[in-house]
């Protein structure tokens, strides 16, 4: 049987699943978010839930957690009808969800965050010793050892992720949903989380792992469910699918070439760095980026890749070295860089750049309102027309240009940020983790845009921790290790093993 087809179950031999969903439907007005989703989840099992942005993953999880009530279909938990009226009812039934955007109280300690809402109380006061014991046990289940008194604001992203998961374990969940749990983690921290999830599954917890990274899904999940346009289109063992088959199911079409490769013709140097150093990072970085080429920077989290871009643009202070743009001394501040046609796509789309309460049209045209103006005033009609064209070009899925950016999925927010660079018609694009939180189909569209920009003579500098995309879209790749940037080599001379070895500082080089 084709693994893309949900399998019939023999009542005489099938093991009763812990959770069973059949024909789940949910609509908002005339829009069908879920059009019939089936899912079986057993104890001691991890299932990968895969789908493009807008495929229905978030809506399905909100139905499961009691945020939404389904319009149709059945949900069974341990063979009994299960329709939680709110998230508290779902949590009491043993369903816990860790969302991509963490809900950590920065002013509280690790222990206080972990027991938040379930504090052990004696005589009307929180029992500190019991609180710490509960928090310590929850962290131990994850193989983590964090200082219980440390404020959450002082934690690294990976540590905050562990605290959030530990909080769910306090209620002893039977089903744990993790939504893009490694999107902000480096390779080593992601590996620790994979191991922690493995321990939870071995201990009897059923896990739903939501991720766009197919290779990661293969590491943690034994089965997968693929959603497309609100319906389940593939269900089976991960090993039964090749990546090409999964991409075909995700996109609804064959994707023969994820990474387009048109002929690039590098021209004159556009950005030149010589021995550039920041106050802390980078330590030393020399690099040339020419018009008409895509250059990638690979490195582990903390190596100084983002700090390099910030020092280049004047967001952080330069301690030493020189920066040249188009053969002249570089602009001195971010506004001058933008005026010169240089745009930055930050990895922190919410912290840097996007105005979540404003519309897509406002965000996409923010840096260049001249084409949307008439008589010195912004024309809403022109602005929305420009935004609609950008939405099509960047494949933004939304109700329209007037929708608030804060209402979009993380991946679509990232695409709005990229659309702004397209609208500004940048000569040089600095892209920091450009595909973070973006689905496979949208990645393919973004890679095509990057390739087209290079063909048009634009220069693109891509910072990424995802090696397949760097090897797929770049002309040259440089590796940053402990703040030092190595030479940029032609991609034909690079391979994944060598790049990783160079990033962690071993003697092996990235050339083949």
Count of spatially separate domains: 3
Radius of gyration: 24 Å
- Low-confidence segments, given as residue ranges, are 1-14, 507-512
Describe the main β-sheet briefly.
7 strands, mixed
Q: State the CATH class of the largest domain.
A: Alpha Beta
Structural class determined from secondary elements: alpha/beta
The backbone outline, from C-alpha atoms, is globular
Overall pLDDT level: 88
CATH topology of the largest domain: Rossmann fold
Give the amount of beta strand, in percent: 15-25%
Give the name of the CATH architecture of the largest domain.
3-Layer(aba) Sandwich
| Terminal CA distance | 41 Å
Oligomerization status of the protein chains = single chain
Descriptive overview:
With 512 residues, the protein is α/β, with parallel strands linked by helices. The protein folds into three domains: 31-251, Rossmann fold; 257-341 and 428-437 and 458-512, Rossmann fold (3-Layer(aba) Sandwich), CATH 3.40.50; 351-425, no CATH class. Strands 15, 18, 21, 22, 23, 24 and 25 form a seven-stranded mixed β-sheet that branches. A six-stranded mixed β-sheet has the order 6-9-10-3-11-12, sandwiched between helices. The protein starts with 18 loop residues before the first strand and ends in an 8-residue tail after the last helix.
């Amino acid at each position: 049987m084709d693994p893309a087809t949900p399998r019939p179950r023999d009542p005489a031999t099938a093991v009763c699943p812990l959770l069973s969903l059949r024909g789940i439907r949910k609509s908002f007005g005339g829009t069908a978010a879920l059009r019939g989703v089936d899912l079986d989840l057993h104890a001691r099992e991890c299932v990968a839930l895969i789908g493009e942005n807008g495929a229905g993953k978030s809506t399905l999880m909100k139905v499961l957690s009691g945020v939404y009530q389904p319009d149709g279909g059945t949900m069974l938990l341990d063979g009994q009808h299960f329709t939680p009226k709110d998230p508290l009812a779902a949590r009491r039934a043993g369903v816990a969800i860790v969302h991509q955007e963490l809900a950590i109280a920065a002013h509280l300690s690790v222990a206080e965050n972990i027991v938040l809402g379930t504090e052990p109380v004696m005589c009307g006061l929180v029992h500190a010793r019991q609180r710490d014991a509960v928090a310590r046990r929850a962290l131990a289940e994850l193989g983590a050892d964090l200082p219980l008194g440390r404020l959450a604001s002082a934690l690294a992203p990976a540590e905050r992720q562990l605290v959030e998961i530990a909080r769910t374990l306090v209620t002893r969940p039977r089903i744990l949903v993790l939504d893009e749990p490694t999107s902000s983690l480096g390779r080593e921290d992601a590996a620790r989380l994979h191991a922690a999830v493995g321990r939870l599954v071995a201990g009897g917890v059923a896990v739903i792992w939501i991720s766009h990274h197919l290779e990661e899904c293969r590491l943690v999940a034994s089965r997968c469910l693929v959603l497309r346009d609100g319906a389940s289109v593939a269900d089976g063992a991960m090993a039964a699918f090749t990546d090409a088959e999964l991409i075909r199911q995700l996109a609804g079409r064959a994707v023969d070439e994820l990474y387009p490769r048109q002929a690039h013709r590098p021209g004159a140097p556009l950005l030149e760095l010589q021995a550039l150093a920041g106050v802390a990072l980078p330590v030393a970085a020399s690099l040339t980026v020419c018009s008409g080429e895509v250059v990638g920077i690979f490195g582990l989290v903390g190596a100084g890749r983002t700090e390099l871009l910030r020092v280049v643009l004047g967001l952080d202070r330069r301690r030493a070295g020189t920066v040249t743009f188009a053969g002249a001394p570089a602009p001195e501040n971010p506004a001058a860089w933008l005026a010169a046609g240089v745009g930055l796509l930050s990895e922190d789309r919410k912290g840097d750049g996007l105005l979540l309460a404003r519309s897509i049209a406002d965000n996409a045209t923010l840096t260049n309102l001249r084409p949307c103006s008439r008589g010195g005033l912004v024309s809403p009609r022109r602005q929305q027309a420009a935004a609609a064209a950008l939405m099509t070009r960047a494949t933004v899925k939304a109700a329209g240009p007037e929708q608030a950016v804060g209402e979009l999925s993380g991946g679509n927010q990232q695409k709005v940020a990229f659309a702004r660079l397209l609208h500004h018609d940048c000569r040089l694009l600095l892209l920091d983790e450009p595909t973070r939180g973006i689905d496979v189909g949208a990645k393919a569209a973004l890679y095509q845009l990057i390739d087209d920009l290079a063909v048009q003579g634009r220069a693109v500098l891509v910072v990424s921790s995802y090696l397949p995309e760097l090897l797929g879209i770049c002309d040259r790749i440089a590796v940053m290790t402990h703040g030092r940037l190595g030479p940029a080599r032609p991609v034909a001379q690079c391979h994944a093993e060598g790049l990783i070895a160079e990033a962690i500082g071993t003697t092996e080089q990235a050339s083949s």
